[in-house]
Amino acid sequence: MAAKLRLESLGCVRGDRALFTGLELALGAGDAALVTGPNGAGKTSLLRVIAGLLPAQSGTVEIEGALAFAGEQTALDREQPLERALLYWARLDAQDSAGVRAALDSMALGNIADVPVRMLSTGQAKRAALVRVIAGNADIWLLDEPSNGLDTDARARLEAAIAGHRAAGGIVIAATHQPLDMPDAVNLTIGEAA
Amino acid sequence: MNAFFAIARRDLARVFTGSGWALPLVFFLLVATLFPFAIGPDPTILGRVGGGALWTAALLAALLPIDRLIAPDRDAGVLDQYAVRGISEEVVAIAKISAHWIGFGPPLMLAALPASALLGMDAESLMRLELGLAMGSLGLAALAVTVAALVAGLPSGGALAGLLMLPLAVPILIFGAGALDELQRGAFFLLAASALLLLAIAPFATGAAIRIMRE
Asked: Are residue A111 and residue A124 in the same domain, yes or no?
Protein backbone atom coordinates (compact mmCIF):
# COMPACT_ATOMS: atom_id res chain seq x y z
CA MET A 1 0.00 0.00 0.00
CA ALA A 2 1.13 3.51 -0.71
CA ALA A 3 -0.78 5.58 1.78
CA LYS A 4 -0.61 9.33 1.38
CA LEU A 5 -2.19 12.25 3.11
CA ARG A 6 -1.88 15.88 2.18
CA LEU A 7 -3.50 18.97 3.68
CA GLU A 8 -3.20 22.22 1.77
CA SER A 9 -3.99 25.58 3.42
CA LEU A 10 -6.77 23.84 5.31
CA GLY A 11 -9.15 26.04 7.29
CA CYS A 12 -12.09 25.21 9.52
CA VAL A 13 -14.87 27.40 10.92
CA ARG A 14 -17.22 26.24 13.68
CA GLY A 15 -20.18 28.50 14.31
CA ASP A 16 -18.72 31.92 13.46
CA ARG A 17 -15.31 31.21 14.97
CA ALA A 18 -12.31 30.34 12.83
CA LEU A 19 -10.55 27.41 14.51
CA PHE A 20 -7.54 27.22 12.25
CA THR A 21 -6.50 28.46 8.83
CA GLY A 22 -3.70 27.74 6.39
CA LEU A 23 -2.83 24.33 7.81
CA GLU A 24 -0.22 22.45 5.75
CA LEU A 25 0.72 18.82 6.20
CA ALA A 26 2.14 16.13 3.94
CA LEU A 27 2.54 12.57 5.17
CA GLY A 28 3.71 9.50 3.30
CA ALA A 29 3.93 5.81 4.15
CA GLY A 30 5.24 5.26 7.67
CA ASP A 31 4.82 8.89 8.77
CA ALA A 32 2.96 10.16 11.80
CA ALA A 33 1.68 13.50 13.01
CA LEU A 34 0.96 14.61 16.56
CA VAL A 35 -1.69 17.31 16.79
CA THR A 36 -1.48 19.39 19.96
CA GLY A 37 -3.15 22.54 21.18
CA PRO A 38 -5.30 23.85 24.03
CA ASN A 39 -8.88 22.71 24.69
CA GLY A 40 -11.24 23.96 22.02
CA ALA A 41 -8.42 24.76 19.60
CA GLY A 42 -9.96 22.45 17.00
CA LYS A 43 -7.98 19.23 17.29
CA THR A 44 -11.07 17.06 17.05
CA SER A 45 -12.49 19.23 14.28
CA LEU A 46 -9.27 18.81 12.31
CA LEU A 47 -9.51 15.02 12.56
CA ARG A 48 -13.20 15.15 11.57
CA VAL A 49 -12.39 17.33 8.56
CA ILE A 50 -9.72 14.84 7.47
CA ALA A 51 -12.16 11.97 8.00
CA GLY A 52 -14.67 13.76 5.78
CA LEU A 53 -17.19 14.18 8.61
CA LEU A 54 -16.96 17.98 8.55
CA PRO A 55 -16.65 20.19 5.49
CA ALA A 56 -13.44 22.19 5.17
CA GLN A 57 -13.98 25.93 5.08
CA SER A 58 -10.98 26.42 2.82
CA GLY A 59 -8.14 24.37 1.41
CA THR A 60 -8.11 20.72 0.40
CA VAL A 61 -7.62 17.28 1.90
CA GLU A 62 -6.04 14.68 -0.36
CA ILE A 63 -6.11 11.08 0.80
CA GLU A 64 -4.85 7.87 -0.74
CA GLY A 65 -5.74 4.79 1.24
CA ALA A 66 -8.51 3.67 3.57
CA LEU A 67 -9.29 5.63 6.74
CA ALA A 68 -9.94 4.46 10.26
CA PHE A 69 -11.24 6.88 12.85
CA ALA A 70 -11.33 6.53 16.63
CA GLY A 71 -13.31 9.44 18.06
CA GLU A 72 -14.71 9.98 21.52
CA GLN A 73 -17.47 7.40 20.94
CA THR A 74 -16.66 3.72 20.64
CA ALA A 75 -19.41 2.95 18.07
CA LEU A 76 -19.82 -0.50 19.62
CA ASP A 77 -23.20 -2.04 20.44
CA ARG A 78 -23.59 -1.73 24.19
CA GLU A 79 -25.64 -4.90 24.58
CA GLN A 80 -23.32 -7.17 22.61
CA PRO A 81 -20.24 -9.04 23.85
CA LEU A 82 -17.10 -7.08 23.01
CA GLU A 83 -15.78 -9.50 20.41
CA ARG A 84 -19.08 -9.69 18.51
CA ALA A 85 -19.46 -5.93 18.52
CA LEU A 86 -15.94 -5.61 17.08
CA LEU A 87 -16.63 -8.34 14.51
CA TYR A 88 -19.42 -6.23 13.01
CA TRP A 89 -16.94 -3.54 11.99
CA ALA A 90 -14.26 -6.06 11.00
CA ARG A 91 -16.73 -7.66 8.55
CA LEU A 92 -17.57 -4.25 7.09
CA ASP A 93 -13.83 -3.72 6.68
CA ALA A 94 -13.55 -7.14 4.99
CA GLN A 95 -11.45 -8.58 7.83
CA ASP A 96 -11.87 -11.92 9.57
CA SER A 97 -12.26 -12.98 13.18
CA ALA A 98 -8.60 -13.97 13.53
CA GLY A 99 -7.63 -10.33 13.00
CA VAL A 100 -10.06 -9.20 15.69
CA ARG A 101 -8.71 -11.85 18.06
CA ALA A 102 -5.13 -10.74 17.46
CA ALA A 103 -6.03 -7.06 17.87
CA LEU A 104 -7.87 -7.85 21.13
CA ASP A 105 -4.78 -9.59 22.45
CA SER A 106 -2.53 -6.75 21.34
CA MET A 107 -4.52 -4.35 23.54
CA ALA A 108 -4.78 -6.95 26.37
CA LEU A 109 -8.56 -7.28 26.06
CA GLY A 110 -8.53 -10.96 25.09
CA ASN A 111 -9.74 -12.09 28.51
CA ILE A 112 -12.87 -9.90 28.45
CA ALA A 113 -13.92 -10.65 24.87
CA ASP A 114 -17.23 -12.11 26.13
CA VAL A 115 -18.15 -9.19 28.37
CA PRO A 116 -20.94 -6.93 27.10
CA VAL A 117 -19.67 -3.56 25.91
CA ARG A 118 -21.79 -1.65 28.45
CA MET A 119 -19.85 -3.26 31.34
CA LEU A 120 -16.48 -1.94 30.16
CA SER A 121 -14.69 0.77 32.11
CA THR A 122 -13.69 4.05 30.44
CA GLY A 123 -10.17 2.84 29.77
CA GLN A 124 -11.34 -0.53 28.49
CA ALA A 125 -13.84 1.14 26.15
CA LYS A 126 -11.08 3.37 24.84
CA ARG A 127 -8.90 0.33 24.22
CA ALA A 128 -11.83 -1.41 22.51
CA ALA A 129 -12.17 1.51 20.11
CA LEU A 130 -8.46 1.21 19.35
CA VAL A 131 -8.91 -2.51 18.73
CA ARG A 132 -11.59 -1.60 16.18
CA VAL A 133 -9.04 0.60 14.40
CA ILE A 134 -6.23 -1.97 14.60
CA ALA A 135 -8.44 -4.82 13.36
CA GLY A 136 -9.79 -2.69 10.50
CA ASN A 137 -6.43 -2.83 8.75
CA ALA A 138 -6.92 0.65 7.20
CA ASP A 139 -3.97 2.63 5.86
CA ILE A 140 -4.52 5.86 7.75
CA TRP A 141 -5.39 5.97 11.44
CA LEU A 142 -7.04 9.09 12.85
CA LEU A 143 -6.90 8.89 16.64
CA ASP A 144 -8.64 11.46 18.82
CA GLU A 145 -7.17 11.50 22.34
CA PRO A 146 -6.13 7.83 22.00
CA SER A 147 -4.31 7.70 25.34
CA ASN A 148 -7.10 9.26 27.42
CA GLY A 149 -7.95 6.99 30.32
CA LEU A 150 -5.26 4.45 29.43
CA ASP A 151 -2.91 3.12 32.08
CA THR A 152 0.84 2.89 31.53
CA ASP A 153 0.71 -0.64 30.21
CA ALA A 154 -2.11 0.14 27.76
CA ARG A 155 -0.31 3.24 26.54
CA ALA A 156 2.81 1.21 25.85
CA ARG A 157 0.65 -1.26 23.91
CA LEU A 158 -0.89 1.61 21.94
CA GLU A 159 2.56 2.98 21.11
CA ALA A 160 3.65 -0.49 20.00
CA ALA A 161 0.57 -0.82 17.79
CA ILE A 162 1.25 2.60 16.23
CA ALA A 163 4.90 1.68 15.62
CA GLY A 164 3.84 -1.61 14.02
CA HIS A 165 1.32 0.14 11.81
CA ARG A 166 3.92 2.68 10.65
CA ALA A 167 6.47 -0.04 10.01
CA ALA A 168 3.92 -1.69 7.71
CA GLY A 169 3.63 1.54 5.72
CA GLY A 170 0.64 3.08 7.47
CA ILE A 171 0.02 6.67 8.53
CA VAL A 172 -1.04 7.80 12.00
CA ILE A 173 -2.45 11.16 13.04
CA ALA A 174 -3.09 11.50 16.75
CA ALA A 175 -4.57 14.49 18.56
CA THR A 176 -3.74 14.42 22.24
CA HIS A 177 -2.92 16.22 25.47
CA GLN A 178 -1.22 13.22 26.99
CA PRO A 179 2.35 12.29 26.26
CA LEU A 180 2.40 9.81 23.41
CA ASP A 181 5.66 8.43 22.14
CA MET A 182 5.74 8.45 18.34
CA PRO A 183 9.35 8.66 17.05
CA ASP A 184 9.94 11.28 14.32
CA ALA A 185 6.31 12.41 14.35
CA VAL A 186 5.52 15.74 12.74
CA ASN A 187 4.38 18.19 15.39
CA LEU A 188 1.28 20.14 14.46
CA THR A 189 0.28 22.77 16.99
CA ILE A 190 -2.99 24.55 16.40
CA GLY A 191 -4.74 27.45 18.07
CA GLU A 192 -1.66 28.80 19.85
CA ALA A 193 -2.97 32.35 19.60
CA ALA A 194 -5.83 31.44 21.95
CA MET B 1 -24.31 -3.97 -1.43
CA ASN B 2 -22.32 -5.82 1.19
CA ALA B 3 -22.63 -2.83 3.51
CA PHE B 4 -26.37 -2.64 2.83
CA PHE B 5 -27.00 -6.20 4.02
CA ALA B 6 -24.65 -5.83 6.99
CA ILE B 7 -26.38 -2.67 8.20
CA ALA B 8 -29.88 -4.08 7.63
CA ARG B 9 -28.97 -7.28 9.46
CA ARG B 10 -27.54 -5.42 12.42
CA ASP B 11 -30.64 -3.22 12.70
CA LEU B 12 -32.93 -6.23 12.45
CA ALA B 13 -30.99 -8.10 15.11
CA ARG B 14 -31.26 -5.08 17.39
CA VAL B 15 -35.03 -4.88 16.92
CA PHE B 16 -35.70 -8.56 17.55
CA THR B 17 -33.25 -9.13 20.43
CA GLY B 18 -34.66 -6.13 22.26
CA SER B 19 -38.38 -5.64 22.72
CA GLY B 20 -38.40 -2.99 20.00
CA TRP B 21 -40.77 -4.87 17.71
CA ALA B 22 -43.33 -5.61 20.44
CA LEU B 23 -44.06 -2.06 21.56
CA PRO B 24 -45.98 -0.83 18.47
CA LEU B 25 -47.78 -4.16 18.34
CA VAL B 26 -48.97 -4.00 21.95
CA PHE B 27 -49.98 -0.39 21.49
CA PHE B 28 -51.99 -1.27 18.39
CA LEU B 29 -53.82 -4.05 20.22
CA LEU B 30 -54.41 -1.80 23.22
CA VAL B 31 -56.17 0.79 21.06
CA ALA B 32 -58.28 -1.96 19.48
CA THR B 33 -59.25 -3.09 22.99
CA LEU B 34 -60.07 0.41 24.20
CA PHE B 35 -62.30 1.28 21.29
CA PRO B 36 -65.27 -0.95 22.17
CA PHE B 37 -65.20 0.49 25.70
CA ALA B 38 -65.52 4.01 24.33
CA ILE B 39 -67.97 3.38 21.49
CA GLY B 40 -70.08 0.71 23.15
CA PRO B 41 -70.54 -2.95 22.22
CA ASP B 42 -72.99 -2.47 19.31
CA PRO B 43 -71.55 -4.76 16.59
CA THR B 44 -72.94 -2.79 13.62
CA ILE B 45 -71.36 0.49 14.76
CA LEU B 46 -68.08 -1.22 15.74
CA GLY B 47 -67.94 -3.03 12.42
CA ARG B 48 -68.38 0.23 10.57
CA VAL B 49 -65.82 2.37 12.45
CA GLY B 50 -63.45 -0.50 13.33
CA GLY B 51 -61.32 -0.35 10.20
CA GLY B 52 -60.80 3.40 10.47
CA ALA B 53 -59.94 3.05 14.14
CA LEU B 54 -57.31 0.45 13.34
CA TRP B 55 -55.76 2.66 10.66
CA THR B 56 -55.52 5.51 13.19
CA ALA B 57 -53.96 3.08 15.66
CA ALA B 58 -51.45 1.95 13.02
CA LEU B 59 -50.44 5.56 12.39
CA LEU B 60 -49.90 6.23 16.07
CA ALA B 61 -48.07 2.91 16.53
CA ALA B 62 -45.67 3.98 13.78
CA LEU B 63 -44.61 6.90 15.98
CA LEU B 64 -43.40 4.73 18.85
CA PRO B 65 -40.15 3.33 17.39
CA ILE B 66 -38.91 6.69 16.10
CA ASP B 67 -36.55 7.45 18.97
CA ARG B 68 -34.60 4.21 18.50
CA LEU B 69 -34.22 4.37 14.71
CA ILE B 70 -31.46 6.96 14.22
CA ALA B 71 -30.58 8.76 17.46
CA PRO B 72 -28.83 5.84 19.25
CA ASP B 73 -26.58 5.20 16.25
CA ARG B 74 -25.80 8.88 16.00
CA ASP B 75 -24.94 9.16 19.71
CA ALA B 76 -22.76 6.03 19.63
CA GLY B 77 -20.78 7.30 16.65
CA VAL B 78 -21.99 4.45 14.43
CA LEU B 79 -23.17 6.80 11.68
CA ASP B 80 -19.76 8.51 11.70
CA GLN B 81 -18.06 5.14 11.30
CA TYR B 82 -20.24 4.35 8.26
CA ALA B 83 -19.27 7.69 6.71
CA VAL B 84 -15.55 7.18 7.36
CA ARG B 85 -15.82 3.87 5.48
CA GLY B 86 -17.29 5.68 2.50
CA ILE B 87 -20.76 4.11 2.87
CA SER B 88 -23.16 6.70 1.51
CA GLU B 89 -25.85 8.08 3.80
CA GLU B 90 -28.50 7.01 1.29
CA VAL B 91 -27.40 3.36 1.47
CA VAL B 92 -27.53 3.58 5.27
CA ALA B 93 -31.03 5.07 4.97
CA ILE B 94 -32.32 2.36 2.61
CA ALA B 95 -30.87 -0.36 4.86
CA LYS B 96 -32.49 1.20 7.92
CA ILE B 97 -35.87 1.57 6.16
CA SER B 98 -35.80 -2.07 5.01
CA ALA B 99 -34.90 -3.36 8.47
CA HIS B 100 -37.47 -1.12 10.12
CA TRP B 101 -40.25 -2.26 7.80
CA ILE B 102 -39.53 -5.95 8.46
CA GLY B 103 -39.70 -5.26 12.19
CA PHE B 104 -42.84 -3.10 11.89
CA GLY B 105 -45.04 -4.07 8.92
CA PRO B 106 -45.50 -7.84 9.28
CA PRO B 107 -45.97 -7.73 13.09
CA LEU B 108 -48.59 -5.02 12.57
CA MET B 109 -50.42 -7.13 9.98
CA LEU B 110 -50.32 -10.05 12.39
CA ALA B 111 -51.71 -7.90 15.19
CA ALA B 112 -54.52 -6.77 12.89
CA LEU B 113 -55.99 -10.29 13.04
CA PRO B 114 -56.95 -10.30 16.74
CA ALA B 115 -57.64 -6.56 16.59
CA SER B 116 -60.22 -6.98 13.82
CA ALA B 117 -61.85 -9.77 15.80
CA LEU B 118 -62.10 -7.48 18.84
CA LEU B 119 -63.92 -4.93 16.71
CA GLY B 120 -66.14 -7.51 15.01
CA MET B 121 -64.98 -6.76 11.47
CA ASP B 122 -66.03 -9.22 8.75
CA ALA B 123 -63.60 -11.27 6.68
CA GLU B 124 -63.97 -9.07 3.62
CA SER B 125 -63.00 -5.91 5.54
CA LEU B 126 -60.14 -7.75 7.20
CA MET B 127 -58.71 -8.71 3.82
CA ARG B 128 -58.88 -5.10 2.69
CA LEU B 129 -57.30 -3.92 5.92
CA GLU B 130 -54.43 -6.42 5.64
CA LEU B 131 -53.74 -5.55 2.02
CA GLY B 132 -53.86 -1.85 2.85
CA LEU B 133 -51.55 -2.29 5.85
CA ALA B 134 -49.04 -4.20 3.71
CA MET B 135 -48.71 -1.18 1.43
CA GLY B 136 -49.29 1.54 4.00
CA SER B 137 -46.71 0.19 6.45
CA LEU B 138 -44.04 0.55 3.75
CA GLY B 139 -44.78 4.25 3.51
CA LEU B 140 -45.04 4.60 7.29
CA ALA B 141 -41.70 2.82 7.83
CA ALA B 142 -39.99 5.09 5.29
CA LEU B 143 -41.54 8.17 6.86
CA ALA B 144 -40.58 7.06 10.38
CA VAL B 145 -36.90 6.71 9.45
CA THR B 146 -36.93 10.11 7.72
CA VAL B 147 -38.53 11.85 10.69
CA ALA B 148 -36.19 10.01 13.07
CA ALA B 149 -33.21 11.41 11.16
CA LEU B 150 -34.70 14.91 11.15
CA VAL B 151 -35.30 15.05 14.91
CA ALA B 152 -32.23 13.06 16.08
CA GLY B 153 -30.14 15.25 18.32
CA LEU B 154 -32.85 17.84 18.88
CA PRO B 155 -34.03 18.44 22.44
CA SER B 156 -37.55 17.01 22.89
CA GLY B 157 -37.22 15.39 19.49
CA GLY B 158 -39.81 12.78 20.42
CA ALA B 159 -42.60 15.34 20.77
CA LEU B 160 -41.52 17.06 17.59
CA ALA B 161 -41.53 13.74 15.73
CA GLY B 162 -45.28 13.38 16.18
CA LEU B 163 -45.96 16.89 14.91
CA LEU B 164 -43.74 16.25 11.91
CA MET B 165 -44.84 12.75 11.03
CA LEU B 166 -48.62 12.70 11.48
CA PRO B 167 -49.47 15.41 8.91
CA LEU B 168 -47.25 13.71 6.35
CA ALA B 169 -48.93 10.37 7.05
CA VAL B 170 -52.45 11.73 6.45
CA PRO B 171 -52.62 10.52 2.81
CA ILE B 172 -51.86 6.99 3.99
CA LEU B 173 -54.65 7.27 6.56
CA ILE B 174 -57.19 8.68 4.08
CA PHE B 175 -56.55 6.19 1.30
CA GLY B 176 -55.98 3.28 3.68
CA ALA B 177 -59.29 3.84 5.41
CA GLY B 178 -60.92 4.61 2.07
CA ALA B 179 -59.78 1.28 0.67
CA LEU B 180 -61.87 -0.48 3.33
CA ASP B 181 -64.98 0.60 1.40
CA GLU B 182 -65.58 -1.80 -1.48
CA LEU B 183 -67.06 0.99 -3.61
CA GLN B 184 -63.83 3.03 -3.56
CA ARG B 185 -61.77 0.91 -5.89
CA GLY B 186 -59.28 3.67 -6.65
CA ALA B 187 -58.27 4.02 -3.02
CA PHE B 188 -55.86 1.07 -3.19
CA PHE B 189 -53.98 2.65 -6.08
CA LEU B 190 -53.82 6.00 -4.34
CA LEU B 191 -52.64 4.26 -1.15
CA ALA B 192 -49.92 2.48 -3.10
CA ALA B 193 -48.98 5.74 -4.80
CA SER B 194 -48.66 7.66 -1.52
CA ALA B 195 -46.64 4.84 0.05
CA LEU B 196 -44.31 4.68 -2.95
CA LEU B 197 -43.88 8.44 -2.95
CA LEU B 198 -42.80 8.38 0.71
CA LEU B 199 -40.57 5.40 -0.03
CA ALA B 200 -38.92 7.19 -2.94
CA ILE B 201 -38.25 10.44 -1.10
CA ALA B 202 -37.18 8.91 2.22
CA PRO B 203 -33.62 7.73 1.38
CA PHE B 204 -32.62 11.15 0.07
CA ALA B 205 -34.31 13.12 2.83
CA THR B 206 -32.82 10.80 5.47
CA GLY B 207 -29.38 10.96 3.88
CA ALA B 208 -29.44 14.75 3.80
CA ALA B 209 -30.63 14.88 7.41
CA ILE B 210 -27.80 12.58 8.54
CA ARG B 211 -25.24 14.77 6.77
CA ILE B 212 -26.63 17.96 8.29
CA MET B 213 -26.70 16.66 11.86
CA ARG B 214 -22.96 15.98 11.78
CA GLU B 215 -22.13 19.67 11.77
From this structure: yes
- Whether chain A has a CB inside 8 Å of the CB on B81: the answer is yes
Spatial distance between the Cα atoms of A103 and B166, rounded to a whole number of angstroms: 47
Q: Is the ipTM of this complex over 0.95?
A: no
Residue B20 contacts by C-beta under 8 Å, 6 or more apart in sequence? Answer: B14, B65, B68, B103
φ/ψ (deg, to 5) at A3? -75, 145
pTM of the predicted model as reported, rounded to 2 decimal places: 0.92
Closest-CA residue in chain B for A132? Answer: B81
In chain B, which among 118-137 make CB contacts under 8 A with chain A? none
B5 contacts on A by Cβ (under 8 Å): none
- Contacts of residue A88 in chain B, CB cutoff 8 Å? 6, 10
Q: What is the pLDDT of residues B32-87, one digit of tens each?
A: 999 889 988 888 888 888 899 999 999 999 999 999 999 999 999 999 999 999 99
Range of the domain at A171: 1-66+139-194
Q: Of A137, A154, A181, which residue constitutes the final position of a domain?
A: A137
